[in-house]
Design brief:
globular; seven-stranded parallel sheet; 2 domains; about 400 residues; alpha/beta; Rossmann fold; six-stranded antiparallel sheet
Length: about 400
């Protein structure tokens, strides 16, 4: 199996010999189309563009020789990467070009994949209820100092800072959608509410004193829901690193990509914890990235009865379980909606890690974060770490030295 096919999980196309006739050529053409369709279905990508990481002059010359046209170069110095865009020859597909490049030994090129927000089902807004303030009966008393003097980053959709729960909070936004059409989506706003919602509300955010840097990468490339290109995500991550954030929330997922893997590895190597949604592709779904990368803290969702979210991914990469089923979220006009998905479970741990870093300055390494969390974990599944719950649910209970959060 060729290297590119191994990476994308698809079969290669057999070479055409000198004696192949027209029927064989037609068969090869059909197999080529089937391959591209398979890749596209499994992992959508920009059809006309390839991305190259840290290419030297020799590689650039080779790529041009293969008919690719060099475009813009982006210096992501905070990620330790330079990305150059290449346009594939007219009428050709990026995936087929990638396979051909890998076959001749060029492995610093990859697809500009699309990634999606990991929001699941939700119910229509309903009137505010007293019961909604206690949807998760866990002892997490309010502690409005949580997250003070801490900077948190997120890559998501646009955050509406004009909603009352976010007005006057410390939120700094920057868009990397580059003029792409924006669809109406409250995903980014919901994540921001969970993290830094105003403490005067019964729906206070988990760390309302924190400073939130919100990078908007998701736009309306897809008619059904916003997506983000890998390039936009890399730009977002580089900006967050420039702002010296101390923990990053990534409530999205998509395919494995060597360029995203390198960026995440470089962030973690600088002792910046990365918390990601585990994915909403079902118990039999493939691993969701970046959550499945080594070192990332991947979060699955559970309901108030500690049952796993039925659409959540499962796998050995799951780190912890957090509240993420029918979470009550305040909306406009005094109403609430109920959100479900691993997207909405991730902020629970992003906030907890931010509070740990704020109140325990002696913890300075990413490698110290997980042991600090597991000391206060409730094992929910098979003994030890399991593919459904990870290590389990972390709770700030009496006798546990973790900081208290401001919600639930």
């Amino acid at each position: 199996m060729h290297k590119a096919a191994a990476i994308m999980g698809v079969r290669t196309i057999p070479p055409v010999g000198d004696g192949d006739n027209e029927a064989a050529e037609e068969k090869r053409s059909s197999e080529t189309k089937a391959l591209i369709d398979t890749v596209s279905e499994q992992a959508p990508y920009e059809k006309t563009m390839l991305l190259s990481v840290n290419p030297d002059q020799e590689t650039l010359a080779l790529l041009r020789k293969q008919g690719l046209q060099a475009g813009k170069s982006f210096s992501f110095r905070h990620l330790g990467m330079t990305i150059t865009t290449f346009t594939v020859p007219s009428g050709q597909d990026a995936a087929l070009n990638l396979i051909r490049l890998r076959d001749i030994g060029i492995d610093v090129v990859n697809l500009n994949h699309y990634y999606t927000l990991e929001a699941g089902s939700e119910q229509n807004p309903s009137p505010l209820s007293v019961q909604d303030t206690a949807s998760y009966p866990w002892p997490l008393p309010r502690a409005h100092g949580s997250g003070q003097d801490i900077s948190v980053g997120m890559v998501d959709g646009q955050v509406d800072i004009h909603q009352s729960w976010l007005r006057n909070q410390k939120i700094i936004r920057k868009s990397f959608t580059h003029g792409s059409s924006r669809l109406r989506s409250d995903h980014g706003t919901t994540i921001a509410k969970l993290l830094v919602g105003h403490p005067s509300s019964r729906f206070s955010g988990l760390i309302p004193k924190a400073r939130l840097y919100a990078a908007s990468a998701f736009a309306g490339q897809n008619q059904k829901k916003p997506q983000a290109t890998l390039l936009a995500i890399l730009q977002s991550l580089d900006w967050l690193m420039e702002q010296h954030v101390q923990v990053i929330n990534l409530s999205f997922s998509g395919p494995d990509n060597s360029l995203l893997h390198l960026a995440i590895h470089n962030i973690i190597s600088r002792n910046i914890p990365v918390v990601a949604a585990a994915g909403n592709h079902g118990p039999q779904g493939p691993p969701a990235y970046p959550g499945a990368y080594e070192g990332v803290i991947a979060i699955t969702a559970i309901d108030r009865y500690l049952r796993p979210y039925r659409h959540a991914n499962r796998g050995r990469y799951i780190s912890f379980a957090g509240p993420g089923v029918r979470l009550p979220i305040p909306e406009k006009n005094g109403r609430i909606s109920y959100k479900s998905g691993t997207s909405f479970a991730a902020p629970y741990y992003t906030a907890l890690i931010a509070a740990i870093l704020s109140q325990k300055p002696h913890i300075q390494s990413v490698k110290e974060i997980v042991p600090a969390l597991t000391r206060c974990v409730v094992d929910l599944g098979e003994p030890g770490r399991d593919p459904v719950y990870g290590w389990g649910l972390v709770k700030s209970t009496a006798g546990c030295d973790l900081p208290l959060l401001s919600r639930f």
